[in-house]
């Protein structure tokens, strides 16, 4: 009953997000999916995005089913499955009572608006796959009275491997399921009392089954690429190689905004309970290892790898914290199994209650500010205002990477970069953008959402000169400094962009 209630609450707490316009990443993924045209040197065709093909395929399907509403409904379903799978892990670890507490903790963390209760992206969609993989790995590796027959264990291990790799198809850094399953399997044979160890022959069979399952999504993606004519080097670069280049750009042009986001990320992790839930496990890891060495090692390895993957993202967006949710759930399960008579178990219960309170307060505040309060979706108003005056053949480039403006305008972009980081990484001197602006395919409209001189790029003056030579500024977006430019010689109405009533004019 508690698990079902927590899962339902996790879904319902995402309902207010339906009242908020499409977010930039959601919009960008939808645009990529709608124009998907794989080429040998371009995985998605007209637009570039550094995400795995399965994610774009899923978002394309959801877009056809119901657009942004269907995507956000899928996010709510993902939260339900995540909570149920987290409870399943806890039940294997310590029984029904631990399952109930872990379900509540997971629902509170994943639904906290301090992280993100609106946008649905690969991180959220991949979480139930990671958590489900951990659940199946725990079942396959049991050595107690409920140890499954070998045939069932092999099926569970194969399914665990499949889900762990499938999670990478949603976000390429969701490696937690693979790490947890591999470490748990090896540690179950190498650590602990001899009578409780998993025999090595069984480990080898389970490992082979898990590997076979893990290869299925990988081979399916490679097979798609070959069938679609996408070069394997292109597939690798777009999904993984680009991240290395982008990280170098982030490091070289580290900004004050990035440092502020890191501090905000840490504060959000504390507010949502992630710091205290994982911190409790870390503090007591030595004692937990003495009691459950294999499981403690697997959880510790998973959290460590997920932390590294999160920080290698470089930009420190709040959604990065979703990566830590499965590890957080497992850490909570380990400590709540101690019971209320243990200081450790009582402290973890208090932390979970605090996480629930934080979630409820944050959700209520978000609704008051963003649903009942003044509308703050300035980018949505900009996109809609452009759509109202544009002609069917018009095109648009949004400088600064706001794909929500692009989507809501209803216009295509002749420039392949819908996000700022790919633009800064793959078009560092703006040569590609300038060639588009100077060509017959020049966009009808340009929205200077970020100042042309942003990021200290030395090519900014040349870009501004090209725009100024061919375009006229027709309006400015009050409050945020954005400007709208119209191609010379084109007659269009002036976009009427309502001001954000809370903007500093």
What does this entry show, briefly?
The protein has about 500 residues and is mostly helical.
The profile of the biggest β sheet is:
4 strands, mixed
**What structural category do the secondary elements indicate?**
mainly alpha
Q: Helix and strand string, N-terminal first?
A: HHHHHHHHHHHHHHHHEHHHEHEE
- State the separation between the terminal residues, measured CA to CA: 51 Å
* Widest beta sheet: strand line-up: 1-2-4-3
Q: What's the number of domains?
A: 2
Q: What value does the average pLDDT take?
A: 92
Question: Which oligomeric form is depicted?
Answer: single chain
Description:
This protein is mostly helical. Helix 3 (53-94) runs parallel beside helix 14. A four-stranded mixed sheet has the order 1-2-4-3. It starts with a helix and ends in an 18-residue tail after the last strand. It is 64% helix and 4% strand. A hairpin with a 6-residue loop joins strand 3 and strand 4. The radius of gyration is 24 Å and the shape is globular. The chain has 20 helices and four strands. The protein folds into two domains: 2-372, no CATH class; 378-487, no CATH class.
Key words describing this protein structure:
single chain, 505 residues, mainly alpha, 4 strands, 64% helix
């Amino acid at each position: 009953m508690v698990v079902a209630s927590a899962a339902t609450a996790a879904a319902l707490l995402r309902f207010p997000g339906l009242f908020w316009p499409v977010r930039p990443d959601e919009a960008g993924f939808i645009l990529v999916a709608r124009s998907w045209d794989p080429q040998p040197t371009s995985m998605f065709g007209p637009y570039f995005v550094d995400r795995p093909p399965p994610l774009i395929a899923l978002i394309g399907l959801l877009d056809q089913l119901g657009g942004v509403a269907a995507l956000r409904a899928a996010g709510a379903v993902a939260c339900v499955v995540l909570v149920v799978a987290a409870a399943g892990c806890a039940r294997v670890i310590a029984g029904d009572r631990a399952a109930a507490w872990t379900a509540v903790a997971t629902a509170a963390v994943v639904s906290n608006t301090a992280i993100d209760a609106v946008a649905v992206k690969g991180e959220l969609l991949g979480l139930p796959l990671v958590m489900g993989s951990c659940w199946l790995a725990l079942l396959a590796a049991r050595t107690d009275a409920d140890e499954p027959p070998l045939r069932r264990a092999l099926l569970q291990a194969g399914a665990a491997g499949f889900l762990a790799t499938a999670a990478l198809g949603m976000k390429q850094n969701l490696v937690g399921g693979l790490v947890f399953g591999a470490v748990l399997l090896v540690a179950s044979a190498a650590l602990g009392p001899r009578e409780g160890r998993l025999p090595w022959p069984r480990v080898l069979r389970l490992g082979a089954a898990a590997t076979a399952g893990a290869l299925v999504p990988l081979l399916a993606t490679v097979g798609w690429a070959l069938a679609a004519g996408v070069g394997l080097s292109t597939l690798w670069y777009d999904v993984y190689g680009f991240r290395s280049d982008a990280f170098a750009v982030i490091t070289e042009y580290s900004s004050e905004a990035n440092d502020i986001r890191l501090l905000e990320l840490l504060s959000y992790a504390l507010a949502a309970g992630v710091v205290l839930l994982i911190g409790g496990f870390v503090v007591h890891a030595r004692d937990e290892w003495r009691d459950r060495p294999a499981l403690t090692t697997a959880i510790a390895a998973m959290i460590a790898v997920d932390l590294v993957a999160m920080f290698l993202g470089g930009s420190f967006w709040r959604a990065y914290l979703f990566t830590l949710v499965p590890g957080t759930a497992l850490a909570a399960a380990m400590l709540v199994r101690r019971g209320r008579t243990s200081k450790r178990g009582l402290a973890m219960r208090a932390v979970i209650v605090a996480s629930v309170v934080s979630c409820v307060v944050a959700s209520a505040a978000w609704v008051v500010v963003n649903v009942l309060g003044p509308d703050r979706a300035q980018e949505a108003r900009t996109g809609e205002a452009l759509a109202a005056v544009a002609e069917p053949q018009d095109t648009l480039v949004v400088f600064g990477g706001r794909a929500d403006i692009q989507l809501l305008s209803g216009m295509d972009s002749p420039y392949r970069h819908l996000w700022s980081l790919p633009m800064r990484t793959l078009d560092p001197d703006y040569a590609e953008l300038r060639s588009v602006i100077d060509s017959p395919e020049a966009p009808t409209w340009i929205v200077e959402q970020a100042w042309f001189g942003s990021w200290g790029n030395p090519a900014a003056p040349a870009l501004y000169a090209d725009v100024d030579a061919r375009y006229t500024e027709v309006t400015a977006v009050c409050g945020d400094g954005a400007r709208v430019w119209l191609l010379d010689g084109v007659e269009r109405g002036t976009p009427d962009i309502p001001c954000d009533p809370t903007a500093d004019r």
